[in-house]
Write a structure and sequence with these properties.
The structure is a homotrimer of 309-residue chains.
Chain A: H1 17-35, E1 47-52, H2 58-69, E2 73-77, H3 91-101, E3 104-109, H4 114-121, E4 126-131, H5 137-151, E5 158-162, H6 169-178, E6 184-188, H7 197-205, E7 210-213, H8 216-219, E8 225-228, H9 239-246, H10 253-259, E9 264-266, H11 287-305
Parallel strand pairs in A: 1-2, 1-3, 3-4, 5-6, 5-8, 6-7, 8-9
Helix pairs in contact in A: 1-11, 2-11, 3-4, 5-6, 5-11
Chain lengths: 309, 309, 309
Amino acid sequence: MLDLKGQDILDGAQFSREQLEGIMRLAEDFRAQVREKKPLDLMRGLVMASLFFEPSTRTRLSFETAMHRLGGSVIGFASTEGTSVAKGETLVDTIRTVDQYADIIVMRHPQIGSAREAAAVAQAPVINGGDGAGQHPTQALLDLFTIRSECGGLDGRTIVLCGDLKNGRTVHAGVELYKHYACRLIFVAPEALKMPPAITERLRQLGVPVEETADLAEALPRADVLYMTRIQRERFADPAEYERLKDSYILTRAMLERLNPRLTVLHPLPRVNEIATDVDSLPNAAYFRQAQNGVYVRMALLALVAGRL
Amino acid sequence: MLDLKGQDILDGAQFSREQLEGIMRLAEDFRAQVREKKPLDLMRGLVMASLFFEPSTRTRLSFETAMHRLGGSVIGFASTEGTSVAKGETLVDTIRTVDQYADIIVMRHPQIGSAREAAAVAQAPVINGGDGAGQHPTQALLDLFTIRSECGGLDGRTIVLCGDLKNGRTVHAGVELYKHYACRLIFVAPEALKMPPAITERLRQLGVPVEETADLAEALPRADVLYMTRIQRERFADPAEYERLKDSYILTRAMLERLNPRLTVLHPLPRVNEIATDVDSLPNAAYFRQAQNGVYVRMALLALVAGRL
Amino acid sequence: MLDLKGQDILDGAQFSREQLEGIMRLAEDFRAQVREKKPLDLMRGLVMASLFFEPSTRTRLSFETAMHRLGGSVIGFASTEGTSVAKGETLVDTIRTVDQYADIIVMRHPQIGSAREAAAVAQAPVINGGDGAGQHPTQALLDLFTIRSECGGLDGRTIVLCGDLKNGRTVHAGVELYKHYACRLIFVAPEALKMPPAITERLRQLGVPVEETADLAEALPRADVLYMTRIQRERFADPAEYERLKDSYILTRAMLERLNPRLTVLHPLPRVNEIATDVDSLPNAAYFRQAQNGVYVRMALLALVAGRL
C-alpha cells in the first residue's frame, strides 16, 4: 500500500515505478468520484496553503480545486504583492510562519531549490508547484497520467518531446518519470535548445531508447504522443534564428492529418501559437483533458501526503 | 417548475416573466433561510470559478458569498495580474482551462460579448457578471427583486431611471426585465446622456409607457421608485456642461422630504456623490438592502444552473 | 460565562481580566482540538469578510485559517487594488456593503480609528486587525496567550519590551492587557523611541512596576520574557543615530546564552535582523509558536463574537 504521509513532493525523480502506479490508480479513483459529482470529505478540517511567489493560473487553480473537491480549505496568496515577502521577509521565515497555520504547503517560487529549502524548515509536507527553471513534479505526474489514460499505458509507446528542451522544467521533470517505462523518446528541438546532453546520456545509460532531431515532421509519423512546449523568444541571442525556427514547430491540423491522424497531442499550457486552434477540436487533442487530469493527480497527492486515505 | 440546469446567464433579455418570477420566489426562499443563519448544503462538493478580468468588489464578493452560503467552494482571481492572461493567453483558452476545474463559471470582463464567447466554449454554465458596456443580468435581477420586495410588486408602479442612461449597462439590462411588468418608466437624463432611442422605441412598441425628461425634480413626485446611477465626468466633451448637469442629479434628504417622502431609492453602487449621505438613514433608502439582495438572487441563479434544487 | 456575541473587537483596553482569561481558556480548548486534527463545525454556514486595505500576510492568513478551522467561509481582498475602494468609494460605504454579505468583518486599514468608524456603521461585529499606528488587539491577545502558555502565567513575571516603543502599536496594545496582571515591565528603547510618557505614567498610576532603560544587556538577566520588535530606520532623522542604536538591539544566541539562557523570546514578526537566525532553534525562542497561537486566539474571538459556543 502506497504511503506518502508527511512526505514532501519536490522532484519527479523521487518516485519509484510502483509509487507512480499507486498515484495514478488513486487519481483514477478520484476522477470517477468527481465525475459523479460526489462530495468528498477526506480533507475536512484541513488547510492547504497555496503560496504563489510567482504568477500561475493553472497550477494554482488546479491545486485549489483539488483541495476543495476533497472537502478541505485553502489559504494563501496569488502574488507576493501585499505580503510580508514584499516587506523583506526571508523565504524561510515566511514558510516557518505559514507552517504554523497550514497542514500542507503548496508553493511556486522563481528560484531553483526554493521548494527544497522550504521543505527543510516546514513540518507540514511541501509540494513543489514549480521552482523556477528547476522542477515541477506535479506537472510531470499529470502528464504521465494523461498519456496513460489516453493511450492505455506507456509501455511500447513512442513519445515525442518538442520545443525548448533545454530550459523546459516540464520536460526535464517528465523524463524522470518516463524512464520507468518501456517507452521510446524522441527529442525534437533546434540545436540551440536541445535537451541537456547530461540528461540524454543518463537516460541512454538506463536503457531508455532516445533519438534526437530538429525536424518535427520527420518524427511525427513514428509517434504515439506529441508533447508540445513553447519556444520562448527570449532564449535566442539571434532574433533571425528564432524567426527561422519557431515556424517548424507550429502544429496544425493539416500537418496532423497528413502525418499522423491518430497522434495524441499534449501541451502543458498556456500555449501561444505553437498549436493552431484548428487542432483543438480533434478527438486526440488532449491538452484540455490534460489540464483536468491535473486536478485528479493533485487530489491524489494531497490526500496521500496528508495521510487521509 | 423552473429549470435552468446547465444554462448560461448572459443577458437580461433571455428571461420570460414566468422565469423571472420563479427566480424571485427562489431568492425569497434563500433570503429566509440565510436570515435564520441556516447552513445550506445544496452545492456541497461543487466549485464555482470567479474570474474577474476587471475589478469589482460588490459583484465578486456577492457571488462568492452566495456560493459559500450554499455550501459550495470558490476558486478564481480578482484581477488578471499574476494570471496566464497576463502571459498572453487568449480568453477562450483561459475559459477552456477553467472549464476543466469548475462546475460553474462567473466572469466579469471589460469586452462586450466576452461572456457569450466564453459560454460558447465552456461546458460549465457561464454567468455574466458584467461584460464592459454590454450586459449585467444579475444586477438587473437583483434590482427587480429589490423593487418587488420594497414595493410589493412592479405592476402599477412608476420607476424613474436617472443618470447616465446612454452608457449604463445596469439600466439597459434593467429595462429588459421591467418590460414584462405593467409599470411606467420615466427616463431622467441630460440630453447628452439620454437612453438610446432604439431602446426607448422598442419599449414603446411593446406597450411600455415611457416618458423622458431632463428634470429630476419634475419626475420625482409621480414616482414609486428612483433608480439612481452615476454620471461619469469622462463622458462629457465640455466640462462646463458636466458642471451644469451633475448638480441637478444629486439627491438630498431635503429634496426627498419636499418632493416625495415615500419614494423608494435604489442605486447599484458604488456611489460617488449623487446620493447625499443624509439620505442613507431614511427607511426607504434601499440601496444597501439592494446589495444584500444580490446574494439571494445569485444563490438562486447558482442553484438553478447547477441543477441542485 | 463569557459572552461577546455581536461585540466589536477594537482595542486591547476593552477587556477585563476576567474576559481575558475566558478568551485564553477558549483558545486553549481550540488548540487542543486543532492539534487532534478534529474538524469543527461551529461556524458552518457563516461568512467572514477579510478586508485588508493594507498588506499583511500573517494577520490575514491567520484569521482565514481560524475561520476555516471553525468550519466557516471567507470572502474579501488582500489589497485594495481591484476593489471599489480604488474607484473612490468611502470606507463607510464599503463597510456598509460588505455588512450585507458577511456575518463578521475583519479589517486592517492604514488609518487610525478606521475600525471604530467601521464598527459604527456595521451590524456585523468588526474585528480590528490593525488600524495604522492605532490598535492591534488580536496581536496583543495572542502575545498574552503565548506568555501565559510559555511561562505558565504572567503574575510575578518580568517582561522586557524592546525596540521602537514610541510607534509600535503591538506594544501599545500589549500593555493594555499586561496591566491586569501582577507583572513587572521593563521598557528598552533608545531615547528617541521611548514609550510615550503618558502611557508609562498611566501604568505607574495603576500600580504596574515599570522601569525604563536604553540598555538591553542590562535588562535581560532580570527578565522572564523578551518581547522584541523592529526598529524602523525611517523613524530616525539622523542616520548616524540609527546606525549607532540598531546594533544594541540585535539579539544573538551568544547574548542569550551569556545573559539569560532560559529567557522566553517573542516577536510579532516579520523580523528583519533584530533576532539572529541562530536563536531560532533554541527551545525558548517562541516566536513561531506565537504565530501559531494567533490561530487559536482568533478562533476564540470569531466563535465568541458570532455567538457560536
